[in-house]
Amino acid sequence: MPRSAAIGKLVAAFTDAGAARDWERLGLLASALAPQLATLGARGAWNRSELAALAQLRAAHDGAAAACAEALETLGARLADMRNNKDGWIAYALSSDTELAGHHE
User: Fold this and answer.
1) Which of 27, 64, 71, 89 could hold 18 in an S-S bridge, CB 3.0 to 4.6 Å?
2) Runs of H (alpha helix) within 1-105
């Protein structure tokens, strides 16, 4: 497979996984990226179209990394909110248990 086509498939994979917020797939893609690029690079000097494809791959990778960072920030904020409201959650759970117990008697 020509290198430009192989790189194009990587671009599509990173773009699709990032858009789908498929973190597991992004992790696998990121882990495999360096060896794949090393294998492709071992074929010789890069031509102009291959360099352009590599620039697209870098942009797709950067976009996926930004999506990961955004999701991590959102999750961190949610966890902090849950931690800050832990007493409220416990009180709610206890009152719900008490209400349910009262309905069964």
Assistant:
1) 64
2) 3-19, 23-41, 48-84, 86-103
DSSP 8-state code for residue 47: -
Question: What is d(CA 99, CA 97) in angstroms, rounded to the nearest whole number?
Answer: 6
Q: How far apart are CA 48 and CA 32, in angstroms?
A: 24
Task: Read off the pLDDT of residues 11-33 as tens digits, 9 standing for 90 and up.
Answer: 999 999 999 999 999 999 999 99
Give the domain ranges of the chain. 3-103
- C-alpha distances in Å from residue 84, one per residue of 24, 72, 97: 29, 18, 22
Copy the structure tokens of residue 67: 């999506």
Phi, psi of 45 (to 5 degrees): -65, 150
Q: Give the pLDDT confidence score for residue 83 in this predicted structure.
A: 86
